[in-house]
Structure formats: C-alpha cells, structure tokens
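re: the backbone from monday

yeah here it is again, tokenized this time
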C-alpha cells in the first residue's frame, strides 16, 4: 500500500472538510481528531487503489490490501472463499444488534483517460464508478469504529463487507450472502458515489432508488451467402438491423409507460467482408426497468418480441436472457436512520432528495433478506461533471471524510435504534 503520498491541499481537499461542518455534531470520543490524523493515509490508499484497479472477480490484491489495513487497526478480517473479498466484524457489546455496512471494490474494463498522478497503471482497467472511494471510506469507518470498540463504547457489532464483482453477473453480493455475510444482520447500509451531487450532500430516497437490470444477448444464424444474391439465403445483417432498431421500441409498448422499461443494445456484430452475407450475427445489451412487477414479466416479453421481429427474415434465433438484479428498494426506517446520520454528520443542508436512477446495483440482493438503504455520496468536482462509467471519471476526494463521518454516524444510530 502506498504511504508516501502527502495530504492534498487547496480545492482538492480543503481542511474545512476534515472537521465537523457547521451545524453538524462532532463524532463521539474525539473521533473527528482521529479522522483528521488518518486522512493522509486514506487519501494515499484511495490513490493506490485507483492506480492499481482490478476487474470484477479478480480483486485479490485489493482484498489483501483491505485485510492488511483492517488488521493494522486491530481487527480480524476474513476473506471470502475465493479470496477476492473481505468480511470484518467490529465487536462491541455482545448483547447488541448486528449492523452491516457494504462497499464494493471492483473496477471496470475501461482505459483511464485522466492526466493525474494516480492514473491507472493497468491497461484497460480503471475505477470509473468510484468503488475505490467506497472502499477507502469503509476502511476509514473501520478504523474509527475499532477505536470505539476498544473503548467499550460500540453498542453492538458492525460488519464491514468489502464485496467483489458488483459490475458483472452473477453478482458478487450473492457470493457474500452465501458466505454468511448477512448472518444475524438486522440492517444494512451502503454509499454510492454521485457526481451530480456536490461534496457535502447526501442523496436519500424512500423506496426504489435504482432500476432492475438484466443482460440480453441475441444470436442469429443462417446459411450465409453472396451479397449479390440475398434472395437465396438469409440476410443476417438486415435481420440484425431490424432487431436492434425495432425490438426496443416494441418491448416498451408491451408495458405501462410509468414502468420505465428501457432496452438498449450496447454491442452488435455481423460479418467481416463487404461482399459476404454472414452466417452469424449477434447483439447484446441491457434491459432496465423501474418497478419489480414489470421486471418479473420482462423475460417473457423480450423473448416474444424478439422472435416476432426476426421471424419474417428467416433467421434462427438463440436468446440468452440473464437475470441481473432487482431494484434497490430503500426501507423507510433505514432512510430515517440515514437522514438523522446525515443531519448529524453534515448539518440539515446535507440532506438532498434524489430521483430513482436507471442504473442497476446489486446491493438490491441484500435487501431481499434484510432491510436497509443505499445513499448517494456527493463527489461532484468543480467544472463540468463526468458521469459514472466514463474513462475520465474522477471523484472529489473531499468526499472521503464526509463519507466516513456519515457512515460512522449511521452505524451508531442504527445500533441504538435496533436495541
């Protein structure tokens, strides 16, 4: 883990964000002072993670770094069975409840395009979704809560979950659940970076905050042939064109408009020569939908529409519909905890309403088992903001102490409310 980096200054990490903002409540037992002391190391950790990203399912070095950092804080982390994720309990009073806090740790298959000292050193891989920030925030939370536990002031157990494979299917959250990550847990919370919110604001919403997201792949086959004689074969390029232009619109007509169903193809492929009609073609994309009932119907609807559109072309259809994740549906009581924690950590102006996103998040699978909530952490930078999943995305590092303070307050309030 890189430790030689110095604490940034100026607009990048103003000192005002290292202490409790005006109108907020200080953390108990001088934890704000401890956070101030830990910030140079946390910033260094975030930049190291950003420089050394790992793809979904391959987060072995990232998990090892997390385990080392938690061990140095006096905790006893345990690795997930594959060794690419970490679960760590911070044991407080044995008669108290168990609250879980989750951070995802994987990166995306994109080439980092930023001109910064901590630019990704791994070709074709970068943290373009802020998971390096999520990981760093949760490490900071672990350090502070470990201090409370040592003082005998943690009223229960806090389970830190550093989850792999959030960006792919099957989801890493299901691996965590299978490994016992939710055993005895009564509530679970998470943060996700949001470049549309400024630092110091937390986006909160009761009910669905993300969409359901599935993967759709359609493979077309035919005899192939010469472009001079398409009437003697099956023109797969024509069939593929119909598929990618007609199916999304027709699918959306089979459901209520307010369900927000959105089918978008992100990849299409057919042929290698200008004068050869190919024998294979394919298209793949995502289906997103805002409500759970429509999500349940989506596979049947998509399958029927695809076959209806392709049938007149004569192409053979092979449809792969891969179930992804349901919408993240925030529990009202958990949002109450987050609202109180945000007000305590940032003052009342830190609470921001946030709309339901069409993005998918596998935090939803945890909420199938226990109540909880996902909040949006403002990481917007000065100047035009860059959306998530773009190679030029970067987060304002002033959001790190904000996230740490918020999640510490969240854990303490959740433990108190659950007793």
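seq for it, each position gets an aa:
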């Amino acid at each position: 883990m890189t430790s030689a980096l110095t604490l940034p200054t100026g607009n990048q990490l103003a000192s005002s964000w290292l202490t409790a903002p005006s109108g907020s409540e200080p953390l108990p037992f001088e934890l704000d002072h401890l956070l101030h002391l830990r910030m140079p190391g946390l910033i260094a950790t975030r930049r190291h993670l950003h420089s050394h990203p790992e793809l979904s399912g391959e987060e072995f070095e990232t998990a090892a770094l997390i385990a080392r950092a938690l061990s140095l804080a006096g905790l006893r982390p345990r690795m997930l069975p594959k060794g690419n994720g970490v679960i760590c309990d911070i044991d407080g009073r044995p008669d108290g409840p168990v609250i879980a806090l989750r951070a995802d740790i994987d990166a995306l298959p994109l080439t980092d395009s930023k001109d910064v000292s901590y630019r990704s050193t791994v070709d074709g891989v970068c943290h373009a979704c802020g998971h390096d920030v999520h990981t760093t925030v949760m490490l900071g939370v672990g350090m502070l809560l470990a201090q409370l536990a040592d003082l005998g002031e943690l009223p229960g157990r806090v389970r830190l979950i550093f989850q792999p494979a959030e960006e792919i299917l099957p989801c890493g959250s299901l691996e965590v659940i299978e490994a016992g990550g939710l055993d005895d847990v009564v509530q679970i919370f998470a943060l996700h970076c949001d470049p549309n919110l400024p630092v110091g604001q937390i986006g909160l919403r009761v009910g669905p905050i993300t969409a359901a997201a599935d993967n759709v792949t359609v493979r077309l086959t035919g005899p192939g042939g010469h472009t001079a004689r398409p009437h003697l074969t099956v023109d797969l390029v024509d069939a593929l064109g119909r598929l990618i232009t007609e199916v999304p619109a027709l699918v959306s007509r089979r459901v209520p408009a307010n369900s927000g169903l959105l089918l978008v193809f992100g990849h299409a492929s057919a042929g290698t020569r200008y004068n050869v009609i190919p024998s294979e073609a394919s298209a793949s994309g995502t289906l997103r939908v805002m409500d759970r009932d429509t999500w349940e119907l989506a596979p049947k609807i998509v399958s029927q529409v695809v076959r209806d559109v392709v049938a007149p072309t004569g192409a053979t259809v092979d449809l792969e519909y891969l179930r992804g994740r349901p919408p993240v549906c925030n529990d009202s009581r958990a949002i109450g905890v987050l609202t109180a924690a945000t007000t305590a950590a940032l003052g009342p102006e830190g609470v921001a309403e946030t709309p339901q996103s069409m993005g998918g998040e596998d935090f939803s699978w945890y909420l199938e088992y226990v109540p909880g909530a996902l909040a949006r952490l403002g990481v917007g930078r000065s100047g035009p903001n860059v959306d998530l999943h773009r190679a030029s995305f970067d987060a304002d590092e002033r959001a790190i102490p904000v996230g740490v303070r918020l999640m510490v307050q969240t854990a303490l309030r959740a433990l108190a409310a659950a007793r």
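The CA atoms of residues 53 and 161 lie 18 Å apart. The chain is about 30% helix and 25% strand.
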